[in-house]
Design goal:
calmodulin-binding; calcium; 49% helix; eight-stranded mixed sheet; calcium transport; alpha+beta; single chain; EC 7.2.2.10; nine-stranded mixed sheet; transport; disordered C terminus
């Protein structure tokens, strides 16, 4: 069956009766002709292959017969090609029920139009053809920024523009005065230096942009569960095709446009599409339409995919949105302010230098290399005056270039990009850049239990019927009536599925770990036939599991029967509270009095103390009310069917990870939905609790107890609470809010849809990559891909590494800034000349900004990082330790370089040019050796672990080689003179002294008090809190 558009009045409806639209009849003729030609060629090709392989042919006098087989099952491909995709897409996007009725409903669209079996899904063999016909489930991306755009951005910097103008003027004057052969050196050298700085900056930014783009693609790659060939399988959202049957549960993102096939209590949040916050109930009657990009908030079900990619409503919207991958983190914003502040200081110094040099020049106090006055009034040529003025302006502008630490934001970008890449390898995908830096100052981690601290590989290890336990022979000992009720309860009250392709094959079970464990126990240990039981039952209403109620229920009846049964499953003590009877070992129904409730409670307690998750099953028979089945599930007067205990072992290494957090001064709090005894047992096993800690000393609380505290009592107890059991998502959110109010930097793990508020409220939201819903992932900052607590600790270590790397670079860069400004300012005021030329200063700028950032930003985390206490919110970014280190190095550099500037000629017996080269060379080498000092802010051994950072050693080596080339070979370009071995030795010796000086300075004790009051707004530019509440 095919379909086309037919207009009736002003409405467009779909007509399923006419075989083909008028516009497609000619297309069909061409396709038939194409198919005939294609088959003829295929036949010829196959016969040729058969002859080449010497296949035995059936021969007769008149013909040759070739056996042509295609073992791949083929769908009605021509029929799919004739589907009017636009009309189908418009029907779903417009939610046109009238058109759907014209087609015969969702099931008819699935089977007759899209050739899909509503139960078994599409055929795997036809997926490729479906993708060819209907397109892939991918969106068009906005064009990627070209490398040229990064170059243009780098050239937009005002200081670069001024320098470029000065360079062009200098080039013009130089060529006019000295000719092309000799006159291009000064201006040309500055232009080459500018181009080099811009190129390095553009390459770096382009590379980071591509990396962030790649991570963005990874972030959008969502896992989807589909049914194909009757089997449930997980695929990428990008592999979903039209005709797929997709399984939906709470927290899933709708992967494409489609229609509801079957399910229960399915509600969808369409706020991303419509802006309406109310959740929409989806059903097969009056609202079967599902739009891609929306989220499932309740229930479960199956949908038929009708449109993918750019044909969906989400695709149309996303194609018009340009994603900004250049997210600016809070730290980058604060560093930009720091850069601006230092830039103002540099600009002031540059203006002073400009004024002093101009005054000295025009008053005749400036002399050339031969000792003659450069300006002698009207005797000096205008071109010479302009040339000198341009040179002075270029020097002043270059001072600004060196003074502005534009490498700080670059260092943050490089550090974040490097850490993001490495964290991906360590099973952590960063969704928001700011989380990398904020994680470094985390003081508290609130973690889930299941799947994070444990393996999430549950197995039923105990089964209790009444007050007696059953071992491996439960199948033969359970009374038949109880067995049947238990089988029905397990079969219908679950979101899991069992697929068994052959009678002898091992069944494939899908669902949550709890559901999988119970289904596996029922199928394997008790011999229950779950799928066959489901076929015999009619489900009337479903109440899906929720974190608040911690139970799920089903209202059902057997086919052709009127008696209605209620089945509940959930947390054992909560189900027990709903029961008034219980079944004993012999199948007898006994009344459940208070004494027996206490005995059963003790059984649950004993199971929980062995780290078992306790699940109870209960049942009640309800008569029809006047022939109508009520959709309200009974919540009292139930009969307890049985108790199961599920064991979920702790992850290997989780105890070590918790100890690592404790030694790093980070508190670990476990928040779980399990009961108090299970939670405490697991917490002790993981090392979060000591055996003597329990509810009496306030280390363990229940969610209801925590939320009923007064605000004052809650704030007083919050630091002592280590385990919160039977918690709801609201309790988790409340705990996060209290911790933040008390000044903690909070990281929270979560996997459920209801965890979204806590994940958003926390300073760092960590969602789970395997068990986490798409809603949880979207609300989080970092996705832990393996759901492992050890990976959370790895993220913490990387966060501290990011923070530490940025501090290293700030210390290194500010040392250069202070030294360069002081040397140029003092020399200009006293002698009227700056010792470092524009080209030399640009070279220094390149070393410290780009190469320095790259060298110091790529340090890997060390064990030392986890031995420090967290920095929290209050510690300034530039600490007193950093001030001590950078001021000591800057004072040494200023002192030694000014000595060379004023006494160098006499000390070395050289002329002015060689003396200036000595100053330049010593200055650069001091920065190179000071890079080693910057590796360790507090440790005296600056070489520890240096062999592991090959990039650092490579950059140091490249810098030294380039410096030698600058001094020895590029004399005219860099304005240098060649140095002999003694002079090189002196430069290296002076620079090497920065190592022992750095070691001695680190012996000076520094108190914990802040040098800068963070509350003082006048000086707060240098004293940042590292994290901000979001």
């Amino acid at each position: 069956m095919t379909m086309r558009c037919r207009k009736t009045g002003n409405k467009t409806i779909l007509d399923g009766e006419i075989l083909l639209p008028e516009s497609k009849r000619n297309q069909r003729r061409w396709r038939v002709a194409y198919t005939a030609i294609h088959f003829t060629r295929l036949l010829g090709s196959l016969s040729k292959k058969a002859l080449e392989s010497q296949t035995k042919l059936l021969r007769s006098l008149s013909y040759v017969a070739i056996d042509v087989r295609d073992d791949t099952p083929r769908e009605n491909l021509v029929s799919l090609m004739n589907v009017d995709q636009r009309a189908l897409a418009d029907m779903v996007k417009g939610k046109n029920l009238e058109s759907l009725k014209q087609l015969g409903g969702v099931a008819q669209v699935a089977t007759a139009i899209l050739q899909t079996d509503v139960k078994n899904g599409a055929k795997e063999a036809g997926v490729a053809h479906r993708r060819d016909v209907f397109g892939a489930n991918k969106f068009k991306k906005p064009p990627v920024k070209s490398f040229l755009s990064f170059v243009v951005e780098a050239f937009k910097d005002m200081t670069i523009i001024i320098l470029l103008v000065c360079a062009i003027m200098s080039l013009g004057f130089g060529i006019k005065q000295h000719g092309l052969k000799e006159g291009w050196y000064d201006g040309g050298s500055i232009i080459v230096a500018i181009v080099l700085v811009v190129a390095v900056s553009a390459v770096s930014n382009s590379k980071q942009s591509k990396q962030f783009e790649k991570l963005s693609d990874e972030r959008n790659n969502i896992n989807v569960q589909v049914v194909r060939d009757g089997r449930h399988r997980h695929i990428s959202i990008f592999d979903v095709v039209v005709g797929d049957v997709v399984s939906l549960k709470i927290g899933d993102q709708i992967p494409a446009d489609g229609m509801f096939l079957n399910g229960y209590s399915l509600k969808v949040d369409e706020s991303s599409m419509s802006g309406e916050s109310d959740h929409v109930e989806v059903n097969g009657n009056d609202h079967p339409f599902l739009l891609s990009g929306t989220k499932v908030t309740d229930g479960f079900g199956f949908m038929l995919v009708t449109s993918v990619g750019m044909n969906t409503a989400w695709g149309e919207m996303m194609s018009s949105i340009c994603h900004d991958l250049d997210e600016q983190t809070p730290l980058q914003a604060r560093l930009n302010k720091l850069t601006s502040s230092i830039g103002k200081v540099g600009l002031t110094v540059a203006v002073l230098v400009l004024a002093v040099l101009m005054i000295r020049y025009f008053t005749g106090n400036t002399r050339d290399d031969n000792g003659r006055k450069e300006y002698v009034g009207s005797q000096t040529k205008v071109s010479d005056v302009l040339d000198s003025v341009v040179g002075i302006i270029a020097a002043a502008v270059t001072i600004v270039v060196v003074a502005i630490p534009e490498g700080l934001p670059l260092a943050v970008t490089l550090t974040l990009a490097y850490s993001m890449k490495r964290m991906m390898k360590d099973n952590a995908m960063v969704r928001k850049l700011s989380a990398c830096e904020t994680m470094g100052s985390a003081t508290t981690i609130c973690t889930d239990k299941t799947g994070t601290l444990t393996l999430n590989q549950m197995k039923v290890t105990e089964f209790w019927l009444g007050k007696e336990t059953f071992g491996d022979n439960a199948l033969t000992e359970i009374e038949s009536e109880v067995y049947q009720l238990l089988q029905e309860g397990v079969a219908v009250n679950t979101t899991g599925t069992i697929n068994k392709s052959h009678a002898t094959s091992v069944p494939e079970i899908t669902g949550s770990p709890t559901e999988k464990a119970i289904l596996s126990w029922a199928q394997m240990d008790l011999g229950m036939n779950i799928n066959e039981t489901r076929e015999k039952l009619e489900i009337i209403h479903v109440e899906t599991f929720s974190s608040e109620k911690k139970r799920s229920g089903v209202l059902m009846r057997k086919n052709n029967e009127k008696v209605i049964h209620t089945h509940w499953k959930g947390a054992a003590e909560m189900i027990l509270a709903m029961c008034s009877d219980y079944y004993d070992r012999n199948g007898a129904l006994k009344s459940l009095n208070e004494e027996e409730k206490v005995q059963l409670g003790a059984i649950i307690h004993s199971m929980a103390s062995k780290s078992l998750r306790c699940i109870a099953f209960a049942h009640k028979t309800v008569a029809e009310d006047n022939g109508q089945a009520s959709e309200k599930l009974q919540e009292s007067g139930l009969a307890l069917l049985g108790l199961v205990g599920l064991k979920d072992p702790c992850r290997p290494g989780v105890r070590t990870a918790v100890e690592s957090c404790k030694s790093a001064g980070v508190n670990v709090k476990m928040i779980t939905g399990d009961n108090v005894h299970t939670a405490r047992a697991i917490a002790i096993e993981c090392g979060i609790l000591n055996p003597e800690q329990d509810m009496q000393n306030g280390a363990v609380v229940e969610g209801v107890q925590f939320r009923n505290y007064s605000p004052e009592e809650r704030m007083a107890r919050i630091d002592n609470i280590l385990v919160m059991a039977r918690s709801s998502p609201f309790d988790k959110l409340l705990m996060v809010q209290c911790l933040k109010e008390k000044g903690h930097v909070v990281a929270v793990t979560g996997d459920g849809t209801n965890d979204a508020p806590a994940l958003k409220e926390a300073d760092i939201g960590l969602s789970m990559g395997i068990q986490g819903t798409e809603v949880a992932k979207e609300s989080s900052d970092i996705v832990i891909l393996d759901d492992n607590f050890s990976s959370v600790v790895t993220v913490l270590r990387w966060g501290r590494c990011v923070y530490n790397s940025i501090q290293k670079f700030i210390q290194f860069q500010l040392t250069v800034n202070v030294a360069a400004l002081a040397i140029n300012f003092v020399a200009a005021i006293s002698s009227g000349k700056v010792p470092l030329t524009a080209v030399q200063l640009l070279w220094v700028n390149l070393i410290m900004d780009t190469l320095g950032a790259l060298a110091l930003a790529t340090e890997q985390p060390t064990s030392d990082l986890m031995e420090k206490t967290p920095v929290g919110r209050s510690e300034p970014l530039i600490t007193k330790i950093m001030w001590r280190n950078l001021l000591a190095q800057a004072l040494y550099q200023v002192a030694i370089l000014l000595t060379l500037q004023f006494k160098g000629k006499a000390m070395f017996g050289v002329d002015e040019k060689i003396k200036n080269t000595l100053v330049f060379n010593t200055f650069v080498l001091c920065q190179v050796f000071n890079e080693f000092n910057a590796r360790k802010l507090e440790k005296k051994n600056i070489f520890k672990g240096i062999h592991k950072n090959k990039l650092f050693l490579a950059i140091i080596g490249i810098t030294i080689i380039l410096q030698v080339i600058m001094v020895e070979l590029l004399k005219k370009f860099a304005g240098t003179e060649r140095l002999n071995w003694e002079q090189w030795g002196a430069c290296i010796g002076i620079a090497v002294l920065s190592w022992p000086i750095g070691c001695l300075v680190k012996c000076i004790p520094v108190s914990s008090k802040q040098l800068i009051d963070p509350k003082n707004t006048a000086t707060n530019q240098l004293s940042f809190s590292f994290t901000q509440p979001r």
